[in-house]
Amino acid sequence: MTRNILLVDDDAAIRDTLVHHLGRGGFSVTAADSAEPALGMLADVDPDVVITDVRMPGMNGLELVALLKERAPDLNVVVITAYEDMETAVGAMRAGAFDYLVKPLDLDQIELVMNRAIRDRQLRQRLDRISEDEGRRSGLDQLVGRDARMIEIYKRIGSLSTNRATVLVRGETGTGKELIARAIHFNSPWASEPFIAVNCTAVPESLLESELFGHLRGSFTGAVTNRRGRFELAGQGTIFLDEIGDISPAFQAKLLRVLQEGEFHPIGSERPRRSEARVIAATHVPLEDRVRAGAFREDLYFRLRVVELVIPPLRERREDVPILVDALTQRIRRRLHRPALTVSNAALGRLVIHDWPGNVRELENAIMRAAVLSPSGVLGADDFVLDAQAREPAGNGGDTLDDAERRHVAAILKRTSGNKRAACRILGISRPRLDRILARHRIMATLRDHAGNDE
């Protein structure tokens, strides 16, 4: 595995420090003092990651990011800067940066980011080997986000695609649970086998067993022919069982047998049939609570939860909203055959602070509605009709992105009772960066009454 890094920074001290530290970590680092010579080094260095400063003589870092993404779309670029502001951060991410770090750098953190960027590139290269049609069918092109928890999910997709372990995907409505299931299936060696999705709440309880296991002719009123169930039709593919928490106790026992023994009985048949399908289940309800209430079998819960993926709601990863907005806007532009479609900064500010109870699905619907109703190629704040959960402060027409950062970090700290380590884990940032945000916004002064532990 190559671990080549191209470093672009006009500060010689920064270059020397990073070359030395990353070199000790097993990376091969080539340094340039500005963007122009760095571009000339691309072919020879063949970097896995580029690190670039923002403010440099000549071409600035954001211009370099945009040019690099144009020349090498699969190349991950990490932006570093001494000037921390939301405008620069959003600009970097919109230009295509993989991550955004603020000086003074946490050297251990930047090494972690380099490893993450390389693994991310390897995963995307694997995903790119799937045909474009399969990619659209599987939803792989819709997996967007740089939140640390989402990056971890992307890595899990790669590892789960090499085996057939049962997976439980948890997350609120609209977070993309089926997209994750499709990504696991269509990136696996069994991608040519069927992927069959069943929403357990959309099928009447009386028909769910027949839907999944099939039936023989005459086994019940209306069964005029033999019918193969979804488990049989799936072959060696994947059965995705959405809203698994809502199935009845009686059916839970039958599903448990499939997971334990790999067998099921079509209705009316005494002869068991084998199932080789992989099961990926999803739920938006806490199954632990249903187990404690006696509404869900504990043994089935553990059989489903061999590997668990938890998708964070959009309100807990607001830094992903600008990236999602950009990706969704371009997808909607193509769907509507619009020559151009963008979202204004004022509108983006409103979208970032909205709580999105319907998560990514609600965000996509909001953009689609605004695009359909607006004749302009630029969607403004007034084009978006958001409910009261947007929580705009009175008198100013909406928060700025800086306000959104302050509110979000304060909310996370309040949720962790002031525990900074836990807050860093949720926010996906380093401790030094959190301390800088707290100092800039004077957040802790207003939270001390709530925080018994600021470590």
Describe this protein with a few key phrases:
single chain; 455 residues; alpha/beta; Rossmann fold; 5-stranded parallel β-sheet; 20 helices; elongated; disordered C terminus
The gross shape turns out to be: elongated
Strand portion: 5-15%
- CATH A-level architecture of the largest domain: 3-Layer(aba) Sandwich
Number of helices: 20
The helicity comes to 40-55%
Structural commentary:
- The protein has 455 residues and is of the alpha/beta class.
- Helix content is 47%, strand content 13%.
- It folds into 4 domains: 4-127, Rossmann fold; 142-310, Rossmann fold (3-Layer(aba) Sandwich), CATH 3.40.50; 314-390, Helicase, Ruva Protein, domain 3 (Orthogonal Bundle); 401-447, Arc Repressor Mutant, subunit A.
- The protein has helices at residues 12-24, 35-45, 61-71, 86-95, 107-128, 132-138, 148-160, 177-186, 205-213, 230-233, 249-261, 287-292, 298-304, 321-336, 345-353, 359-373, 401-415, 420-427, 431-441, 443-447, and strands at 4-8, 28-32, 49-53, 76-81, 99-102, 167-170, 195-199, 214-215, 227-228, 238-242, 263-264, 273-274, 278-283, 307-310, 342-343, 378-379.
- Strand 3 (49-53), helix 3 (61-71) and strand 4 form a beta-alpha-beta unit.
- Helix 11 (249-261) crosses helix 13 (298-304).
